[in-house]
Amino acid sequence: MYFLSEAITQNSFLETLFKAIDALKIIIKKRDQKSIRAILFKDFFKDDRIHESLKIFEGHEFCQFNVQPNMVLDISANWHTMDDYLNDLNKKYKTRFRRAKRKLGNIVLKEMTLAEVLENSEHLHRLYKNVSTKASFNTFSLPKHHFYQLKLQLQEKFRVFAYYLNNEIIGFYTLILNVESLETYFLGYAAAHQTNNQLYLNMLYEMLAFGILNNYKSIVYARTAMEIKSSVGAKPKSMTMYVKHTNTLVNAQLKSIFKVMNPKLEWEERHPFKNS
């Protein structure tokens, strides 16, 4: 979130947002005959400045929750190529990297143009659904032409890479170029190729390669599949969000409800580097 700090304070900015949200609730009710059930501010790292306004959120009856950590890989200043990264891996994970690459076989990775994303929109969506439907918890489903629309709007700031086998797309991943951070976005793959060709693990390595070669300071791998992401070097960074239900009675029970909706995941963090 951005505001002109020379002109207004963070608290003033947030109070303005709350007024806008109240106005939107009225507009949506009149226009769409729908009631807003919940308001969510997400996702913030522990050191984000927004937490300085905790009393403002509490004054508006928002609850603060810790959520699953975001997996972030900080790129070493010594990494200029993937060989530099490999040199820092211990023997076990260096072998794992090479095995994953061998398992690709004849599969070829190519970046897709805007026209190619449009032409393959429905197929990309099917591959995305293969993965998203297996998630333990989903709050939404992307529309069919989402990736095309994002590419159309963001252009070179949004990149789509696809894996081809015999000229057929069997998997893809997407990246958002966000200043000094490379944000990994949604992906998809054909289930038949996930285990045999280790597509997902290869995607994680390719995302990292892009980040290293394009001088990013970090790769934000997001919150799913934390164990395998830690195996390539990502570290968990705690995250917080603020939630309010518009029903006063429900809002009073929100912390109990959220514990059920957001169970703690048990996973083992991996340590792939020589000195870790």
Task: Characterise the protein shown here.
- The chain is of the alpha+beta class and 276 residues long.
- Helices cover 42% and strands 25% of the residues.
- Strands 1-8-2-7-6-5-4-3 form an eight-stranded mixed beta sheet.
Q: What would you say about this model in short?
A:
The chain is an alpha+beta fold and 276 residues long. It has twelve helices and eight strands. The mean pLDDT is 93.
Features:
single chain, 8 strands, 12 helices
Radius of gyration computed on alpha carbons: 21 Å
Strand order of the largest sheet: 1-8-2-7-6-5-4-3
Low-pLDDT segments: none
Instruction: Please give the largest β-sheet.
Output: 8 strands, mixed
Structural class: alpha+beta
Q: Count helical runs.
A: 12
The helix content, as a percent range, equals 40-55%
Our measurement of the CA-to-CA distance between the termini, rounded to an integer number of angstroms, reads 34 Å
Strand percentage: 15-25%
Order of helices and strands: HEHEHHEHHHEEEHHEHEHH
Please give the number of β-strands: 8
The residue-averaged pLDDT reads 93
Q: What shape does the CA trace take?
A: globular
Question: Which SSEs are present, and which pair or pack?
Answer:
Elements: H1 10-32, E1 38-45, H2 54-59, E2 63-74, H3 82-88, H4 91-103, E3 108-111, H5 114-119, H6 121-132, H7 146-154, E4 158-165, E5 168-178, E6 181-189, H8 191-197, H9 199-213, E7 218-222, H10 226-230, E8 235-245, H11 248-252, H12 254-261
Parallel strand pairs: 6-7
Antiparallel strand pairs: 1-8, 2-7, 2-8, 3-4, 4-5, 5-6
